[in-house]
Amino acid sequence: xxxxxxxxxxxxxxxxxxxxxxxxxxxxxxxxxxxxxxxxxxxxxxxxxxxxxxxxxxxxxxxxxxxxxxxxxxxxxxxxxxxxxxxxxxxxxxxxxxxxxxxxxxxxxxxxxxxxxxxxxxxxxxxxxxxxxxxxxxxxxxxxxxxxxxxxxxxxxxxxxxxxxxxxxxxxxxx
Length: 175
What we know:
The chain is mainly α and about 180 residues long.
């Protein structure tokens, strides 16, 4: 009769998780000095290296927090550490450090920059929002992308789709 193997501890996640989804030692060396001092008291904390590996795993695989393999830690603990570090600015400082290192090694063209974004109406637009044509007369806005004739391409609008109608502040919508 064979004895079952003892459960593996959470510290040997390196043997259970594909290395592609774990941070490199170089990345950890860059992150470690950026981490804030842990708060004192309470239960012993999970190791920072393990928590960073778990956060890295979630961000590289795209899984939900609750789908995190148990060998990396409890999902709620990992998410709490992620929020703690995000509030402390760890990830912003890591990004800035990486940006400066890239600029020093490869170089950035600081004269050219791009910005992308999206704007939509506030969900509680009040009186500026007309009746919603898709919801039996309730207030709201229908968003759609009408295709214009002549090959000009789509233009995102809100109902009504007349570009000369006044916008929510009484200004005329741009063409």
